[in-house]
Amino acid sequence: MAETRSATLNRPATPLVVYSLGLTIFALTTSEFMVAGMMPALSVGLGSSVAKIGYLIALYAVAMAVGGPLVTALLLHARAPDKPALLVLLILYVAGGVLAAVAPGYGVMAVARVVTGATSAACFGVALTVAAGLAGPEARGRAASIVLGGLMLAPVLGLPVTTWIGQTFGWRASFWSVAGLSALCTAIVLWVVPSTHRREAQAGLAPELAALKSRGLWAAYATSGLIIGATFAAFSYAGPLLVSAVGFPESALPILLAVYGVANVVGNLIVGRFADRYTMPILAGGLVLLSAALAAFGAFASHGSVALTAFLVIGLVGVPMNPAMVARVMRAAHPGALVNTMHTSVITTGLAFGTWAGGAAIDAGFRLTAPLWIGFVLALLGLASLLAGRAAGARRMIAEASPRRSTGTPDLIR
What we know:
Number of helices: 18
Order of helices and strands: HHHHHHHHHHHHHHHHHH
Structural class: mainly alpha
Number of strands: 0
Radius of gyration: 22 Å
Mean pLDDT: 82
Shape: globular
Helix content: over 70%
Largest sheet: none
Strand content: under 5%
């Protein structure tokens, strides 16, 4: 009875921890997006061309994709428990944010973006691991949806706010605001996140590297990368598509993007609620809807109502499949920090590829709707990877069961 009462008393603390991790991801993701909202000001302030400022976004993405797993591997090699590891990463992230705020020139800003990008990806991995451990196997998808809710809110709330701060008080104030929010998140993590059990902390790097040998895990990674690649092949060019191809006035663009962001948040909440029980059906159904929406947008871009509906469906089912993607990865392998950080890296790679492929198609002389068709192909490949992964899993189960049949050993009674 005492144990039951103790468990009941401790249960309310879990949502606070998970929501605090969501706030942390919000701060980190806002920093990733904020450069896009103040490129002209940064160009003047750092004495660089707008194109060169754009490279700061690419540097952040490359640092996430490559540096994140390396940083996580170093922490695992040092056998750092999850909470201290997260605190170290956040302190480094705050230091990178401060460096960006005081950067006297482009070179220092580039270093700051590399530091914040690498530590951001590692923070994603550790935060998801902490959330999964607190929630337990039955609620990992829901916990992931709360943590990743910060990712959804960053472009809807974080980007406009930092853009306004930059326009009102200067671009340095925007970086200071994100550094301050990150410092607050560091204090919250220190206060509310429980310490990791010592035996779990001593597992080290070897088990995580062994987990990365799983074919099922890489099949899950591939599907995730293709989903995000398909989504961002379209979303990265949403502005030109909605204005030039569909015909909406430029003044309507902020409202349309805000509605898209709301669709992201709503989709994330819905998927998060059911991701643990219906992981594969959500991914399959989501990819079918995503493919259909991309094709409809591409084929009927000149029809405003059809194009807008398709655009919102992409917002509802694209990025919001994240909780189901995370739930699948956590079933394919033990949800350790390196497994989750690699997942973030693959997603970032998919995002970069989708954006690059869409731009390359436009530069090659194809119509403005070309990125939508590239996204459509990537979504179909994602669906194919999902079906192939399920087929491989079924074959593996049959292969594992066949020795029992050959020796006459009866199957386990359910």
